[in-house]
Amino acid sequence: MDDRTFLARLAQIPFDADAYEKKRAEEAAAKAARRPRVIARYLTDAGKALSDPGLNVTVTEINHDERGGGVYATFAQCTGCPDGEKFHWDDGLYGYGMTHEESVERAADRARDWAQGHAETCRAMTCPDAA
Predict the structure, then answer these.
(1) How far apart are CA 114 and CA 54, in angstroms?
(2) pLDDT 10s per residue in the chain (131 long)?
């Protein structure tokens, strides 16, 4: 098939702009659902002393495609030091009378507790000059 024939056939295919926009919106929503979601931040002791909100412990829910896009873990990570913890929602309780939502909330509660406790005592500061 030469280029003219191809272009002539292509011009005959109807273009549905509404369907195209709907598909783009669905893809954008699916991509947004896979992004990590920050659910809490706790200012560290150093952050309070220096009035630096960048020194905090961030609690984040992470999605995982292999599990159908659902949250598989909640992370608590300090920005001032390398400390952090991962709290899986499937820590042996899911399937034993606890719903998925309850497991996710339990992991989030545990992560918040860890993050708050760490933030109250962490005096570490990031050092941009360190390599």
Answers:
(1) 18
(2) 788 888 888 788 887 888 888 988 888 877 766 677 889 999 998 888 888 888 999 999 886 654 455 567 889 999 989 999 998 876 555 556 777 788 888 889 999 999 999 999 988 877 666 54
Integer Cα distance of 109 and 78 in angstroms: 17
Instruction: Establish if 79 belongs to a structural domain.
Output: yes
- CB-CB neighbours of 66 under 10 Å: 7
pTM above threshold 0.70:
no
Comparing CA positions, the residue from 59, 58, 113, 95 lying closest to residue 80 is 58
**Residue 76: helix, strand or coil by DSSP?**
strand
Structural domain of residue 113, as residue ranges?
34-121
Number of domains in the chain: 1
The three-point CA angle 48-115-39 to 5° equals 100
Answer whether residue 129 is part of any domain. no
